[in-house]
């Protein structure tokens, strides 16, 4: 895969470049009024929502932050995420905590190149595709890469952590 040029570097892109992981950048015009960032990427790039994954930060057992990467077409099963990292229960992290931990702005959080590496779990459905799309670290920029490469770069595991329907 060739990288698209012209996109500003982010820590996510830098991490992929350092690791020599093949990827393709897909920039699109972000609408400042948009609040459903994954849906916006799907529509702007004309992609299958099952192949575009959103990065969500949750707090497990009230004590530690973890990252769940699930399809835009579904939502995060918090109980399954907690179990995948050896916990009992999870709740969505406060936006400020997710931004502070990751170093990214809400709607542009990438599972790659985060300021503080967190345990990361990718929904198993990602393995059904040759490539998937995740945020490249800012609103209006997606990165396409192989699921196994994402797992390697994010030091992530795969588990069934998504449920059908929009979150």
Which consecutive residue ranges, at least 5 long each, have pLDDT under 50? Answer: 1-7
CATH topology: YbaK protein
Give me the Rg, rounded: 14 Å
CATH architecture tag: Alpha-Beta Complex
CATH fourth-tier homologous superfamily? YbaK/aminoacyl-tRNA synthetase-associated domain
Shape: globular
Give a short account of the largest sheet.
Answer: 5 strands, mixed
Encode the helix/strand succession as letters: HEHEEEHEHEEEHEE
Q: What structural class do the secondary elements suggest?
A: alpha+beta
Number of DSSP strands? 10
**Estimated share of beta-strand residues:** 25-35%
Q: Briefly, what CATH class? A: Alpha Beta
| Biggest β-sheet: strands ordered side by side in the sheet | 5-2-3-6-9
Polypeptide structure, described:
This protein has 5 helices and 10 strands. With 167 residues, it is α+β, with helices and mostly antiparallel strands. A 5-stranded mixed beta sheet has the order 5-2-3-6-9. Strands 1-8-7 form a 3-stranded antiparallel beta sheet. Mean pLDDT is 91; it is low at 1-7.
Search tags:
5 helices, globular, 3-stranded antiparallel sheet, 167 residues, single chain, 5-stranded mixed sheet, YbaK protein, alpha+beta
